[in-house]
Amino acid sequence: MNFIKRLPDWFKGSMEFCNKMIVSLKKKLKDGYDTWQKINNTNSEKGNKNVEKILDFLSMPLRSISIQTRLFISFTSIALILLLITGYLSYSKSSEAMKSKISTYSIQITNQLGGILEREMDKYGKFLNDFSSERSYFQDVLVKMREPGMDLYSRRKLINDVEAIWPDDRDFG
């Protein structure tokens, strides 16, 4: 809880430190640019001295910054680079994993639905084959059941005979 109360002050102090650092870097870069112009204006010196001056010019802004500031900038930039790389890698890997899982899941569902539909079609195909092969028997049963002189006992016996030919495991309802 104490940390949360001190967080705005810490953030404000960090922003002031960064602002001071940017202002000092700006001044040092301007000084370095002026030095660079002086180096370019003196064409009399040649060879290694020019290279040394160029290297001195490039390192001048860094040498004029305190070690504490250089370390802070270095560690912050390394941490930021690592954070960005880790974030990008984790995002891309998780996106790939999600895409592959979704496609695998879709393929599995399609295969399962295909199997279920195939079994249902086989069931109805067998029913139609059985019905067409037993057609004359069923027609005879239907004709007998519609006869006006048929009593309840005889009808029940015909139904039981049909059920014996057609077991209950062929329920299509």
UniProtKB/TrEMBL annotation:
The keyword Membrane applies. Keywords: Membrane, Transmembrane, Transmembrane helix. The chain crosses the membrane at residues 71-91. It comes from the Bacteria. This is Methyl-accepting chemotaxis protein. It comes from Acetivibrio straminisolvens JCM 21531. The lineage of its organism: Bacteria, Bacillati, Bacillota, Clostridia, Eubacteriales.
